[in-house]
Amino acid sequence: MASPATVLITGGSGLIGQHLTALLLHHGYKVIHLSRSAHSGDVPTYQWDIGQGQIDERAIQQADHIIHLAGAGIADKRWTKARQQVILDSRVQSTALLAKALQSVDHQVKSFISASAIGYYGDRNAEWLTEESDPGQDGFLEEVCVAWEKAVDEVTTLGVRTVKIRIGVVLAREGGALPKLVQPMRFGLATYFGDGQQYYSWIHVEDLARQFLFAIEQEHLRGVYNAVAPNPITNKAFTKAVRSGLPQTALLLPAPSFALRLALGQMADAVLYSARVSADKIQKAGFSYKWTSVAEAVRDLYSHS
To answer: Are 169 and 201 in contact (CB under 8 A)?
Structure first.
């Protein structure tokens, strides 16, 4: 019997990485991680230092597939100039380090699948956005995603099959946007942002993990694919749907745009941008979503509370 394929994940300890690791192990893959500190265990972890340009070559030598998720959290801290540089560098420099390792190390890597984000499209009102749509022009999120994806192109030049996954608003109980939205609902308050008419393109975290697995297993996949459920909805409708997926009742109130700008600065873009993103391309490639309703996704995530 052939030995299981090995998947190397960067950012494996993060929200998406944890779900993806569990899914891959369940499907019989061997999983290894790259992290700032090395350790052994059920998932062996090898060390890299992005700032120093150092990577344990043994991780690359073992890998059949690489899934690149690493990057400083977008919403972890206020977007000072210094923080913006950290967010950008953590994505571009880490990708460049992996490309350099693939160029210099003997390896058997068949595919390189990198996260990106729908921030690529910028603030586009109700326009339907596909993988062929132009990037946004004026914001920090667009700048990061464009530079990130350009860095991935360096891997493509090495002859490795590359896939870029533009991730929408991830619904997960353990982190991301959803717990921040749910917490005040437990006290009777449901908040939408600005006028609530901006489109949110969302995805259940398990569907996202499944899409990365699909990208590994479908060898015809190349290029860019959106990772969003098929029915993006406005922020106000999104908030109502989240509320309907919980047992509590909550009063629906707006958080004015100016107040968000005062509180968050430029980081308010992350909640005020409108991106109505299409899932058609990945569906036509054969992928099917388990969760296409926000309310059903929320019920699933909170059904064990």
So the answer is: yes
* pTM of the complete model: 0.95
Question: Can you tell me the distance from the alpha carbon of 69 to that of 56, in angstroms, rounded to the nearest whole number?
Answer: 17
- What letter does residue 229 receive in the DSSP assignment? -
Biggest CA pair distance of the chain: 62
Residue range 189-241, pLDDT digits in tens: 999 999 999 999 999 999 999 999 999 999 999 999 999 999 999 999 999 99
Second-level CATH architecture of 6-302: 3-Layer(aba) Sandwich (3.40)
> Can you spell out the DSSP letters for 68-96?
E-----TTSS---HHHHHHHHHHHHHHHH
Query: How do the domains of the chain map onto residue ranges?
Result: 6-302
pLDDT in tens, 102-123: 999 999 999 999 999 999 999 9
Does residue 189 sit in helix, strand or coil? Answer: strand
Which residues lie across from 223 on neighbouring strands?
Answer: 163
Q: Tokens representing 251?
A: 């009063």
Structure token pair of residue 92 = 């571009």
